[in-house]
Amino acid sequence: MTALSLENVSKSFGEVQVLRNIDLVVEPEEFVVFVGPSGCGKSTLLRVVAGLEDASSGTVRIVGRDVTRTPPAKRGIAMVFQSYALYPHLDVEGNMALGLKHAGESRAVIAERIATAVRLLSLEPYLKRRPAELSGGQRQRVAIGRAIVRKPDLFLFDEPLSNLDAALRMATRVEIARIHRELGTAMIYVTHDQTEAMTLANRIVVLRDGKIEQVGSPMALYNDPDNLFVAGFLGAPSMNFLPAGRLGAPGATVGVRPEHLRLASEGPLAGTITHVERLGADTNLLVTLGGGETLTVRLFGQHPQQVGDAVALAFDPANAFSFDREGRRIRH
Amino acid sequence: MNRARTSRLNTVAAHAALLAWTAIALFPVFVILVNSFKTRRAIFAEPLSLPSEATFSMVGYRTVMAQGDFLLYFQNSLIVTVGSLTFILLFGAMAAFALSEYRFRGNMLMGLYLALGIMIPIRIGTVAILQMMVATGLVNTLTALILVYTAQGLPLAVFILSEFMRQVSDDLKNAGRIDGMNEYAIFLRLVLPLVRPAMATVAVFNMIPIWNDLWFPLILAPGEATKTLTLGSQVFIGQFVTDWNAVLSALSLAILPVLVLYVLFSRQLIRGITSGAVK
Ligand SMILES: Nc1ncnc2c1ncn2[C@@H]1O[C@H](COP(=O)(O)OP(=O)(O)O)[C@@H](O)[C@H]1O
Ligand SMILES: [Mg+2]
Questions:
Q1: Structure ipTM
Q2: I need a labelling partner for A214 at 20 to 30 A (CA). Which of A106, A174, A189, B228 fits?
Q3: What is the CATH number of domain A239-330?
């Protein structure tokens, strides 16, 4: 049975339509990531799934049950928030127990569920501490623990790593992936960080202005984007776009990923290096062409080029993407 | 320039300023307390000296206690103040929660309407209030005073509390909803504890004017059974003779409960401030 199905879901705040006709199915055990720029409606969609906002129209089903009018606590979901949202007056144990108490679970069940979550997240030393006495990373682990003890049919994460520093973000990301493998429960994860999206997702849903732009596995979206927006949104550094006319190619725009550009002795794409980023494993060059366009070139390994060097760029046409005037992909 | 030394200098200056301010603020209280233990002659001869063996006298306190009803006045003031504060905080917080938490038509207008009272002194309506109290038979009851003071305190309470409640994290409230808390539990168990410093502020702001008010007790509840402390103390101030011993003793006694309430509330205030600081 599908973990979640959204049928024609729309949401408006007054005059402003934030979600437009969203259709989506999440399979059991699937890890689905919503990505999109800030303000595109990711959180709103997640809150509609959670029941924190009512859909203006459409149907929400969780494990086959129509929950469109069901309150959040009865939807079989658990949610982890960016701001952790731990209850400040309760210790770690109390935070995890509260939902179960409200659901009327017995003490034995509560103790057993908490023990499982504590083992899974190594929270043992902190059980009696208040949230104020924990670091950011620890707080987020407690928030994840609070979600796990509910044994939901569907986990919802709203940018859970955005408040953590880079090292902790990576560690927690790995931890979330491990928890997903061990629990085997469907998860929906909202982020604006494409690294998180690419590394965690079984399937990525790219949103823009409240509409789904494309759904697919990370590699499918990366290698075969449907449109200019998806092509530009996934990948870092992001894809280079050039007017097609400049290359004599069909369509309106040609896109080439930075790693598909290489240095050549001569060619139509001649310019000057304006910036060099040396990352050790990679070297990124910003090259400004004669026409004023700036392209990013990603070279593997370490390279000696300097700012001010004149270079020419080339690429294999098989690696280029063509888009029409509306930004839709032209497939050959 | 030595940083440690400048900061030491700053500390000294700050403490000096604070100490001076404390001295100025406590001076009238000190004068009242000291003189309440002196003979009438000594009060006027040396108002600033401490009571000595020759000038010590409890006559003021004896007069106050002999007045018999003084304890009753005390009790009335306490009932009116605590009752009014309870209702101001309860209804103020409830209205503030509704205004800050729910989107509904006319939310803004309702907030403005509730806050309007801040700018309009309630005493302008004294005649109408008196007529209302007469019509409902509430004249000479403590209920009348509690109702009026609640109405007087609510606008500012709603205004301050709704501003603070808007700052309580939405995620926290939503986490509560997902965990099965109903709206009352979210209000009482999550939001109220987090705005406790604001509640204490509102309480302190309202407490003193209610405790000290002479106007409404005089107009709405001048009867012997419902006299408040401030009104009751007026018997010692005559048009021609004033029993200063009794007045000062009554004032000294009147300070006590306010002081206790203030300490209770300000502890909440400080706890709220520091819990935010270490977060
Ligand atoms: N309660 C609300 N009232 C009005 N507009 C809202 C509300 N919540 C979100 N929005 C609007 O909906 C849009 C999408 O918001 P959101 O879902 O939070 O975006 P994001 O993708 O960054 O999570 C934004 O333009 C935001 O201003
Ligand atoms: Mg968001």
A1: 0.88
A2: A174
A3: 2.40.50.140
